[in-house]
């Protein structure tokens, strides 16, 4: 391939094409016309001497070469962005985008705490916030997000990650104010025959505290509802006999908007991951935009 024929815009289009696997969606995302994307794809196919995207019955699929390119492309574009930012970064004038991922309870608290400072210090910076359920560290490792806010811990293979403590958290049990246990001090014996709502963000098949019950010889906890997000917890708890195990700051918010109560969790059900961290990848460690964001977050006091 002749590098003189390659411009940065083509790589940006290629990144979106490989992510979307769809010409029309890529055009919509980038604010371009479909014919322009088609022409760019034709140029890219010629440059890489490969079809890159192959039309199949259900849409387009990536060729093996496209899959290989995709693994490196995010890192290359991030390096280019970092190179530019090193020369020009000024919080007051920067138009950078900072991509954040976290589940709603943690993300809500972080944004609530920092958003005023972000807007005052960097009015032109965009925070791109993702709270859709997915594996916690996948986008961070692929270079598709700058920061992850989570109480989960990465595996030993994810050793190129840095972290910064944000806040400690406890958990509460949420139930309807009319629930038989709403006004009783909770213990394991009272809870063992209750119905629980499960929050299955990554496709988990068991309740997050099931292993705590199992350690006590209780392995038949009933979970008749499994949610992929946090948004319906209050409504479901308010109108059923289901109990939900949620972070306490999120529990307090649910109690303000629904006819539910938040009860103290018996100590046998406390989880180990009770501290939430801000994680970032080695590739962004020296990025001045990300350094500025980390310092801003560090300057705030998180304690729940």
From TrEMBL:
Gene3D superfamilies: Periplasmic binding protein-like II (3.40.190.10), Winged helix-like DNA-binding domain superfamily/Winged helix DNA-binding domain (1.10.10.10). Residues 6-63 form the HTH lysR-type domain. Keywords: DNA-binding, Transcription, Transcription regulation. It comes from the Bacteria. Belongs to the LysR transcriptional regulatory family. This is LysR family transcriptional regulator. It comes from Pseudoalteromonas arctica.
């Amino acid at each position: 391939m002749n590098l003189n024929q390659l411009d940065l815009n083509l790589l940006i289009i290629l990144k979106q094409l490989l992510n979307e696997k769809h010409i029309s969606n890529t055009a919509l995302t980038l604010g371009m016309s479909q014919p322009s994307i088609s022409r760019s794809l034709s140029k890219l196919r010629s440059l890489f001497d490969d079809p890159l995207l192959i039309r199949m019955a259900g849409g387009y699929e990536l060729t093996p070469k496209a899959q290989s390119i995709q693994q490196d492309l995010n890192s290359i574009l991030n390096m280019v962005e970092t190179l530019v930012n090193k020369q020009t970064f000024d919080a007051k004038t920067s138009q950078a985008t900072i991509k954040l991922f976290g589940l709603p309870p943690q993300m809500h608290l972080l944004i609530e705490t920092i958003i005023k400072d972000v807007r005052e210090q960097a009015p032109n910076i965009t925070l791109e916030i993702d709270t859709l359920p997915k594996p916690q560290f996948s986008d961070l490792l692929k270079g598709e997000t700058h920061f992850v806010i989570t109480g989960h811990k990465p595996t030993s293979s994810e050793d190129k990650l840095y972290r910064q403590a944000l806040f400690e958290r406890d958990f509460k049990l949420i139930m309807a104010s009319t629930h038989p246990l709403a006004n009783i001090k909770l213990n394991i014996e009272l809870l063992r025959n209750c119905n629980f709502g499960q929050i299955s963000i990554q496709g988990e098949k068991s309740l997050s505290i099931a292993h705590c019950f199992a350690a006590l010889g209780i392995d038949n906890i009933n979970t008749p509802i499994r949610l992929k997000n946090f948004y319906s917890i209050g409504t479901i708890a308010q109108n059923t006999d289901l109990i939900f195990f949620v972070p306490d700051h999120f529990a307090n918010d649910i109690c303000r908007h629904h006819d539910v109560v938040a009860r103290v969790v018996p100590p046998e059900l406390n989880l180990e991951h009770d501290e939430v961290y801000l994680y970032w990848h080695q590739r962004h460690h020296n990025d001045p935009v990300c350094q500025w964001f980390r310092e801003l977050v560090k300057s705030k006091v998180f304690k729940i």
